[in-house]
Amino acid sequence: MTKRDIKKAVLAYSGGLDTSIIVPWLKEHYGCEVICYCSNVGQGGMELDGLEAKARKIGASEVVVEDLRVPFLRDFVFPSLRAGAIYEGRYLLGTSLARPLIASRQVWAAERFQADALAHGCTGKGNDQVRFELTYMALAPQLAIIAPWREWDIVSREDAMAYAAKHDVPLAQKPGDLYSRDANLWHLSHEGGVLEDPAVAAPEAMYKLTQGPEQQPAWPETVTIGFERGRPVSVNGKTMGPVELVETLNALAGRHGVGRADLVESRLVGMKSRGVYETPGGTVLHEAIEDLCRLTLPHDLLNTRLELSHRYADLVYNGLWFSPLRRALQSFVDTAMDVVTGEVSVELHRGRATAIARTSPYTLYRPDLASFDMTGYNAQHAEGFMRLYGLPLATAARRGQPAPLRQASEETLNAGGPVG
Fold it and tell me: Is the pTM of this model over 0.85?
């Protein structure tokens, strides 16, 4: 499909710098009608206020604004939480989880308006371009994809702001604030500016959701979270819907500085990048659900879930939410979590969230077995267990070792060190 064939394009529009200048750019370079698709995933009122009016002012023929907060948490965040997915051990996937939802609803808008193309404002160096476009491919492979950052001659945020000024595009961002931020109910991310030097500590003034050490309460606070089949359903005994629950935990945990992650991560496109993330409520929920899993899941299932959680996190980070593998892993996870019901109490203090108590009707913990009291446990059974469990070791020892290994073992014994 050539530029001339594209008569109507649906743009994933946030009202920020990049997507705002794309509207006049598409009209100028493609001569097509531009429909702006906007979603509310909990980024806050300041980003959403006046969004439709602004989009129309800069040239959009139609504007679609959807409230996706509930499906974002229910259908994307909580399934990932049940899977225990954390990218490279630190990142709770806030941006990665929102992109496939937004892109899927953008596809819906394209079908509604019979558009020829889908457009996004992701740069050619980032992960989001992959997340958007793989979703397009999975759901609407017949539509053309327009990625202006791979076409135009704008190469920096300063260039983008100059283009905006030239085309009378109003912007809230100022030249002195060059952080690239992404906000939703699950997290707030920060990139760019001084963060591009990993040797420079993130300035305290940059944080928005979490209190710094000087503002944090002096005493710890305990919050109790209820789960049903791995889904968070209550806080401190009060049943809550997904949005209220996460907002409540964000406020409680953020006050104690919980949920900051400053890391250099591996981008899918082949480079290292530095990001600073604030995920206060999500950090508490991960601590709580992992603790409840240890109480209710047998060892082999617990370990298998842990092994697969890394694969699941990579799939989400790499934009493969709608892949057959991710869906198959979700089926395993949801079956495994059928018994993960109960309550976990988490202590919040000085930037840390620590599970301190837990209970479940499906607990595998039995005091009569775990205590030092031998009531209810026949110690004589242990002898037969150990004989069978250690049989391979005894068999190998009776067989004897090859000469080099035997010599090395003797030398180690003579030296007084451990036998390796």
Answer: yes
